[in-house]
Design a protein that fits this description.
This protein is an alpha/beta fold. It is built from 12 helices and 10 strands. Bound molecules: glyceraldehyde-3-phosphate, 1,3-dihydroxyacetonephosphate (13P) and zinc ion.
Length: about 325
């Protein structure tokens, strides 16, 4: 069942975090829905601009409608990840997405406010909620690449004005994470002080943590043992993610970890069975392994086991 992101946040806020997982293809979609159904967890499916052009936005939408039928127990929202203004308007016009993210965090404060406000006005007119970003994460996203040294933590002194002027529904805060498989290359860690300060100024307001992959070291080791070259890959400590959820971090974004599972499964498959050319063999293993990863991660987030309570709260 596709619900609004707001409904997911209302149930989760302060108690657990909802996993927001990126998809690009059918195998990721099957693994995600299987893992969330097995762990009885609500979730958010994220689609980036890159995914919309890789698989075609119509294919992704059709896949999610099909997954909704194949997994009738699933309760999820559909979200545009790191949208620019044009892509946000396209998703809003299509009326399929539950929420969009407008990422104008690379602009000046006033320009970020102006762009976000335009998107909020268009989205709210259609009952779609909006995630905005203040501060800047390091790493590479679809349309912006930010050097670690240029990343800026969210300034808590700006958040009230930003939310008041834009009317956004949740806020992605830069708290020391970065996108991709090479996080914390400097000595920085997660800034709980920033989360605490932001929540003090915005009590009850859902926060979003980007760049939340934990980059499991066993995956990195196995990838490298099978011919990969991921040197010094590092992610977010899982204990920190569990700690952030009761502090108002209600949406936790994960993409890289899924890519690592994909990479490990396929590298090992081709190493161990060089004569194979059937894509379904590693594909099947990936779906099962990705589902197992999702089950584990939902336990870390605290979303595992929340499905039936949510269904009751929704009266569904
Ligand atoms: O934050 C970015 C996400 O990991 C999506 O990545 O833009 O390459 O699809 P992508
Ligand atoms: P990771 O690269 O840590 O998976 O972060 C993904 C993300 O923030 C998507 O918006
Ligand atoms: Zn992100």
């Amino acid at each position: 069942m596709i619900v609004t992101t707001r409904q997911l946040f209302e149930h989760a806020y302060g108690k657990y975090a909802v996993g927001a997982y990126n998809i690009n293809n059918a195998e990721q979609t099957m693994g995600l829905f299987r893992g969330c159904t097995d762990s009885r967890a609500p979730f958010i499916v994220q689609i980036s601009k890159g995914a919309r052009s890789y698989t075609d936005k119509r294919m992704l939408e059709a896949m999610l409608r099909a997954a909704d039928e194949i997994f009738p127990d699933a309760i999820f929202a559909v979200h545009l990840d790191h949208g620019d203004e044009e892509t946000c308007y396209d998703c809003i016009a299509g009326s399929f997405y539950s929420s969009v993210m407008i990422d104008a965090s690379h602009e000046s404060f006033d320009e970020n406010v102006a762009i976000t406000k335009r998107v909020v006005d268009a989205a709210h007119a259609k009952g779609i909620s909006v995630e905005a970003e203040l501060g800047q994460l390091g790493g590479v996203e679809e349309h912006v690449s930010v050097a670690e040294s240029d990343a800026k933590l969210t300034d808590p002194a700006q958040v009230e004005e930003f939310v008041r002027r834009t009317g956004c529904d949740c806020l992605a805060c830069a708290i020391g994470t970065s996108h991709g498989a090479y996080k914390f290359t400097g000595s920085q860690g997660l800034h709980f002080d920033v989360i605490r300060e932001v929540q003090k100024r915005l009590p009850g307001f859902p926060l979003v943590m980007h760049g939340s992959s934990s980059v499991p070291q066993d995956e990195v080791r196995r990838i490298n043992a099978a011919g990969g070259a991921l040197k010094g890959a590092k992610g977010v400590n899982e204990a920190d993610i569990s700690k952030a959820a009761p502090m108002g971090v209600t949406k936790v974004n994960i993409d890289t970890d899924g890519r690592l599972v994909w990479c490990r499964v396929h590298r090992e498959a081709f190493r161990d069975d060089p004569a194979n050319f059937d894509l379904r063999k590693p594909g099947k293993v990936f779906i099962a392994e990705y589902a197992a990863y999702i089950v584990h991660k939902n336990k870390v987030l605290g979303s595992a086991g929340q499905l039936d309570g949510l269904r009751e709260a929704l009266g569904a």
